[in-house]
Each structure stands twice: as C-alpha cells, then as structure tokens.
Amino acid sequence: MEPFVTHVGRAVPLRRSNVDTDQIIPAEYLKQVSRTGFGKGLFAAWREDPSFVLNQPQYEGATILVAGKDFGTGSSREHAVWALTDYGFRAVIAPRFGDIFRGNSTKAGLLPVVLPEATVAALQDAVEAEPATELVVDLDNRVVTAEAAGIEASFDIDDYTRWRLLEGLDDIGLTLRHVDDITAFEHSRPAFLPVTA
Amino acid sequence: MGRTLAEKIWDAHVVRSAEGEPDLLYIDLHLLHEVTSPQAFDGLRAANRKVRRPDLTIATEDHNVPTTGITGPGVPLTGPDSPVTDPVSRTQVEALRKNCAEFGVRLHPMGDADQGIVHVIGPQLGLTQPGLTIVCGDSHTSTHGALGALAFGIGTSEVEHVLATQTLPQARPKTMAITVDGMLPEGVTAKDLILAIIAKIGTGGGQGYVLEYRGSAIRSLTMAGRLTVCNMSIEAGARAGLVAPDEVTFAYLEGRPHAPSGAAWEAALDYWRTLPTDTDASFDHEVVLDAATLTPYVTWGTNPGQALPLASSVPDPDSFADPAARAAAERALAYMDLKPGTALRDVAVDTVFVGSCTNGRIEDLRAAAAVLQGRHVAPSVRMLVVPGSMAVRAQAEREGLDAIFTAAGADWRSAGCSMCLGMNPDKLSPGERSASTSNRNFEGRQGKGGRTHLVSPEVAAATAVTGHLAAPADL
Q1: Angstroms from B55 CA to nearest CA on chain A
Q2: ipTM
C-alpha cells in the first residue's frame, strides 16, 4: 500500500448524503477480476449528467472528495475504494462513513477523514467559491487546512490505523508476525466446531 | 458485570490483544463468492501464500450467474450450452473455479444441489452455528447473526487477510439492544419489522455498533424471520446483528449436514446455552419498539430508511426538519418519479421480485404462494420468483409451490442473487418500477434507472395481483 503522510490537492464538493457504494460504482462494473481500471465506473450513472460535479471543468484534477453524511454505506464492495483511487482521489472528507467502506479505504491507501457537518459544509462552500482552493490533508498531525479560506480542522483517527497508513504497511504481514499465537489459538478450539471439508 | 452475547463471542475469539492495537480475532467460517474474491486470491499468489484453513472456507456462485438455463449439475460454463452469455461474467465465474481448485476450497457451482445465495446456504447446511465468527466479502453477512453468530461483511483486502491468516484485526464494536416486545399483528412480517426499525434509527444509526435484537416479538419469530431481520442490519449501518440462540435455533440446526451430532451436539448445546446476554449486562445504546403498533411497511425513496406504512402517502420533503433529510427526500422523489401526497397504494409497478438473501427462503416462497393461490398476476406486471438456493427450489417443487407460481403467471427460476443487485441478466430497465423483497432500494440497484420499493413477500405477491402496492388484506 502506498503510504499516506500529507496530501495537498484541490477538492470536489459532493453535496449529497447517503452516497451508497452502489452509486460510487454500480454492480455492472464489478465483473472485472483485476484491481485496476475501476475509475471508469466511478459514479457512472451520475456522470451521465453533464452538470454533475465531477463533469465540471473547474474540478478537473481534484484529488480530495468532500461529501455529505454517511458516505459509502451499503455494499461491502472494495471496488468503490479502487474506483475512487483509480480516478485519482487520495482522501474523502465527510461527517460520517459507512463502517465497511471506511475500513476498506484504510486497507487501500485512501484516507477517510471525519469532520463535523458544519466544517464539511464550510469546506464545500470554500471550494465552490474558489475551485482552485488547495486543501492540505495532514495525517501526521491529524489536521485538514484550507488556508485561503481560513479553515483549519483537526480530525480523529486511531493511532494504529494512522501508523499503518503513514508507513504504508500490509496488514497480512503484520498479522503473520503473530502466527504462533494463531496456531496456539487453533489448538484450543472446541472439537464440535464445524468444518467445510 | 455481565456480558452481552456479542461480547462473549468476541472474547472467545481474541487471538491476541495489545494496547493501542485492534484485537486479532479468529474467524470460524469464511464464505466466498465470485465477485469479491478474485483479487484476494491474486494477492495470495503474488505473495506466495496459501489458504490457511480451506476446511473453514466454502464458496458458491451467486451474484453473477443467471437464473435461467440452469439444467442441473454440470451445466457448462463455456460453449454454446452455457447459460452465462456475458464473457466478462464467465471469466469471473471461471476465476472462482480455478482459485477454489488451486487452493483446495469447496465450491458449490451453478446447477449444484447445494448452490445458492451464500447467506442462504450457510444456515441451510448447518455451517452457521451459534457463537461462531463468520465473515464474507458481502455486507449481508449480518444474516447469519440470526443463529447467534457474530457475522459481518468485509472488503476484498480483508478477504485476502482471512484466507492467509484465518484472522482479522478488528476494533471492538459498541453494542446496541433493539428490543421489540409484544405480538406482531396479523399480516405483519419480519420484513415489516426490520423496515420499521431502519426507518426509526436511520441508515447510519447502527454505525459502529453490533445490534442485538431482543424481546418477545423477536423470540416469537421463526428462524426464517430472524434471518430476514438480521440480514438488513447493514441497512441501518451496523455490520452485524444478532439474535440470542434458543430452542428455535437448536431445533433449526439439529440434523443439518454440518451440525454437530451425538456427544458433540450435547457439548455444543451446553456451550450455546451460555451465550445469551447476561441479565446484568449493559448495552452502549438501547432502542425500544412496540410490535403491536406495526403494519406492513414499504419504502418510498432511495435508501432503506425512507420507509412508511403501506397505508400512508408519499411524504412532502418540506415535512423534514433536517435540511440534509429534506434534500435527500427531494432527490429521492425526483428519482422515484413520485409526487408528495400520493397514496402508496396507488403506486403502480411493472415488476415484482420475490427472492434474495433477505426473503428467498422456503418460508418466504410459501407466504408468497399462499397469496397467489387461485389468483393471477396482473397483465401489466412481470413477476420473478427466485429461490435463495437450489435446495429451497427443490423443496418448493416438492410442495407444489412452483405450480402455484407458474399458474399465477409468475416466472419460476433457479437460485441466485438475481434481481437484487443488477449484476446478472435479471434487471430492471430504465424507468421500470418494482416491488421487491430484496434489501436495497438505492438508485439503479436493480438496474440502471430502475425504481425499487422494498416490501415483504406477502405484499410483493398482493402487489403482483393488483398491479399496484397492496397487502393481502386488500385482495
């Protein structure tokens, strides 16, 4: 996984709440067996509308999505994260995320940033007023700044997830350091538990 | 201080716990399907890793397979007789078959007698048992909580992690009790109950929590009803939902192929009886509902929380105080092509879908068939009845339910996710409107531009007869 320390970029305001993962990438795009190329399916239905925010030229090349509450609800498809990163996003800022989406993001190097609704709205206002506004998402110091708009907001993220993202660490490698614990646990499992074989 | 059911299962599965780190949880059962697993197997190959416990892993083909042309076991995947006509879908199914063969994972392919929707076959085979940790790369894994298992959906990176290590690092969730006391009135189902719960707590209300459904109304539900309720926990934002194991659970499990037997059954029973939440345990949050106040529910919008009793009317967005909820309602009504004040019973549909991991079990098909018996689907409506598994299909045929559906003019299909998710040939066309027993009414969920009203099997069947949203009592 690519480490995430500090990211500086322009942002896209997505003023919608409850953006479920079926909107982020519809099921018809989930048939690929690779991890790449999902950017073309990102918000596929909404992008057919020329006025949709991602189609507006002033937001071209933006790398931070600023969305409404409950972003990434619904289906567990990690393809939603792959679609966002493949399209070029490195961070999503929202007041609340679907649990599975948030977990998937941190496994794939996309930073989910939780900020209060009022702060998210202020960031959206700032970006709409001046699309060239640069945001700094600083994971090291857990702070988002939009200096030109006078916004500085700190965010919470647990130490362990932050460390993994800062270092770009692979979870499986971390877990396999404890393979002896896993083996010992397996020896303690009751005999009545089911097996598929 | 006592512990909740969720806490007991959690504690029994902690492989390793360290300050400042998520717990490392052991996973008892890992379910796989074709859509969210190929990249995980690729990851294993790239790192030269194997599946640690193929004997705790099982796969099925469900999301991306057709529900017609399944002639039986051994139905070909390639060639002119293959029911899978889309080459990209075929590649994905082929990938699952190759991966399962290479890594030694049991697979139930299209046409197999035990093939079906992953969340239908787990309980049916008796693999889903109380006290287990169960994961699958599918958010409706919460279904298995109906038997008192801690079961939750994961992403593909986590699928790879479980394949490689049989564990997952997880932060301990909070617990929420959803207590439903009283008796469900005649004609009110488990589906109505869960839609009412989601409408009450909202699509984000359960985020960060494991839900435990409690109270006399939950205890009175059949296992099928409990599975329906737990299935939609994720629609309230919760990764997992649970019902404490009891005599209903034990009676359901006894004699199933993978349920313990003999002395092992007795040992398992002794353990399972220790699992229910202690009387002195406390939950982080509690919600209470009165079953007696419930009526059949339907969704009017584009998320499962946008639901109302069938007897009501399409709401006016201006009636929502919260600006975000108002904007969401405006958007939903525009997408759904509905006008505020329209009676929900006046909403006409083109398609009725009975099936899915929410309502694709034999009890659901019996309920729909009971309504359709001696009646006919309205000429303006197409109705699909899709059993959740091939075993459900076989059982329904033994009971003659297929004959009732066919005589009523419905289409009787083979098992799969079908029209729940718009990924296989069963889809809505743009602008089409459905009454669906599935779990998500998101924009385009059942096909691009399609409009979905979530309902119970009973309401689905009555709606098929009248051509507009209706309950059996309306017939």
Answers
A1: 5
A2: 0.97
Choose the closest CB to A28 out of B132, B160, B422: B422
Most A CBs within 10 Å, among B63, B136, B139, to test the A interface: B139
Q: Quick one: pLDDT at residue A170?
A: 86
- What is the per-residue pLDDT across B254-272, written as a single tens digit (0 to 9) for each? 999 999 999 999 999 999 9
Rg of the Cα atoms in chain B: 22
Q: How far is CA B456 from CA A92, B77, B90, B192, B417, in A?
A: 36, 34, 32, 7, 17
In chain A, the N- to C-terminal Cα span, in Å, equals 34
Residue of B nearest to A101 (CA): B155
Q: Roughly what angle, to the nearest 10 degrees, separates helices B223-231 and B362-372?
A: 100
Kindly give the parts of chain B with pLDDT less than 70: none
- Report how far apart, in Å, the C-alpha atoms of B117 and of each of A74, B27, B138, B184, B188 are: 18, 20, 11, 28, 25
Measured between CA atoms, the residue of chain A closest to residue B41 is A33
Residue A7 to residue B67: CA distance in whole angstroms: 47
Distance from CA of B20 to the nearest CA of A (A): 6
Residue with tokens 């009450």: B200
Distance in Å from the first CA to the final CA of chain B: 53
Contacts of A56 (CB under 8 A, 6+ apart): none
Q: Name which of B16, B84, B170 to mutate to probe chain A: the one with the most chain A Cβ atoms within 10 A of its Cβ.
A: B16
DSSP output for A20-42: BHHHHS-GGGTT--SSS-GGGGT
Reported pTM: 0.98
The sign one gets for the Cα dihedral A136, A137, A139, A141 is: positive
Instruction: Write the residue in B264, B423, B443 that is nearest to A192 by C-beta.
Output: B264
Contact residues on chain A for B24, CB-CB shorter than 8 A: 175, 178, 181-182
pLDDT tens digits along A97-137: 999 999 999 999 999 999 999 999 999 999 999 999 999 99
Contact B352, B384 (CB under 8 A): yes
Instruction: Put the strands of the sheet holding B23-26 in their side by side order.
Output: B14-16, B23-26, B167-170
Q: Do A74 and B42 touch (CB under 8 A)?
A: no
The alpha carbon of A20 is separated from its chain's Cα centroid by a whole number of angstroms, namely 13
What is the per-residue burial (b if ≥16 Cβ within 10 Å, else e) of A61-70? ebbbbbbbbb
Residue in A74, A159, A189 nearest the CB of B139: A74
pLDDT digits (tens, 9 = 90+) for A1-31: 889 999 999 999 999 999 999 999 999 999 9
Distances, alpha carbon B96 to alpha carbons B32, B107, B138, B232, in Å: 9, 9, 15, 27
Question: Which pair of structure tokens corresponds to residue B24?
Answer: 């490392």
